[in-house]
Amino acid sequence: MCTGSPSSNGSQPEETNATTEQQPQPEQEATEQPLRTPTHAIVGAAKAEEILAEYGSNLKLLECNSQVSELLTIIRDKNTTRSDFKFYADRLIRLVIEESLNQLPYTDCDVETPTGAIYEGLKYRSGNCGVSIIRSGEAMEQGLRDCCRSIRIGKILVESDANTHEARVVYARFPDDIGSRQVLLMYPIMSTGNTVLQAVNVLREHGVPEKCIILSNLFCTPVAARTVVNAFPQLKILTSELHPVAPNHFGQKYFGTD
Ligand SMILES: O=P(O)(O)OC[C@H]1O[C@H](OP(=O)(O)OP(=O)(O)O)[C@H](O)[C@@H]1O
């Protein structure tokens, strides 16, 4: 299924570097193999109505296509090098951030073109800001900054007990007027959903209405989705995959720590 690295045919995995030019594959090989439907595509497309019934309309999945499937596959592959992992994770993050920005409220905006014609366009309706949950959420900050140059970004640190998964907030810093902004909350992995629950609670304590929060996420388990949607039915969630197994190695591999 994958057109890039790593090897998908069960042979010895190839170490690749994202900056190295890929060798073109013979065209015959690429076109004769029918593409398999990835698991997340089944969840994302064929079961769309079930997802709507189960989680409501505020849980949205990134549009499923072969490119997204390849990125998810590379990120989940244990043989992916750290360099490739970061490169492809950043690509997926960018797609999720772009679609998250699409969930913000917009308003009409007319501009005059160089020919004097009026172009009927759109612009963001009000102030926005980002909030990342330390530490994996910080991996998503650059993707947001690449789209919104000088956006303010707050931080929340939530500590989870390794055994009980109980989470508690130990640090939070936000822009003073966060209560009047649309908040893009960034965290790539939702396993139990406890970390995100605590982060949303802190935002609410700082005056941010639930409906003004968009959660940008890469990997979400059905359990976490149910937990968060039940606790905060007005919160919008955008994720690229709903799958029972969360890649909990994300933070360690992205940042290169144990
Ligand atoms: O939905 P939850 O059950 O709360 O879990 C969310 C994430 O937090 C944990 O990672 P870790 O503590 O390593 O966080 P980090 O990657 O952000 O450092 C866990 O392994 C998940 O990846």
Automatic annotation (TrEMBL):
The keyword Glycosyltransferase applies. It is found in: Cytoplasm; Nucleus. GO terms for cellular component: cytoplasm; nucleus. Pfam families: UPRTase. Residues 12-34 have a biased composition (Low complexity). One of its GO terms (molecular function) is glycosyltransferase activity. It comes from the Eukaryota. Keywords: Cytoplasm, Glycosyltransferase, GTP-binding, Nucleotide-binding, Nucleus, Transferase. Residues 1-11 have a biased composition (Polar residues). Residues 1-38 are annotated as: Disordered. Residues 66-242 form the Phosphoribosyltransferase domain. Belongs to the UPRTase family. This is Uracil phosphoribosyltransferase homolog. The lineage of its organism: Eukaryota, Metazoa, Ecdysozoa, Arthropoda, Hexapoda.
